[in-house]
Write a structure and sequence with these properties.
Blueprint lengths: L4 E2 L1 H9 L6 H12 L5 E2 L1 H11 L1
Parallel strand pairs: 1-2
Length: about 55
């Protein structure tokens, strides 16, 4: 099983579909999602996301 630890900006760019990620990065994330494998995020990522929406 492929496991990826996503940084905050990568998570945001991926979920918002911005064209900032490379084709290889987008493909790896899409494959992960298609196979039903969870992507890992750190606890600080949750805090950073909360700061973005606060």
């Amino acid at each position: 099983m492929l496991s990826l630890l996503l940084d905050t900006h990568v998570l945001v760019w991926w979920r918002h579909g911005s064209g900032t990620l490379t084709r290889a990065q987008s493909r790896a994330l899409d494959d992960l999602e298609r196979r039903g494998h969870p992507a890992a995020i750190s606890s600080i990522t949750l805090w950073e996301l909360a700061q973005m929406v606060a």
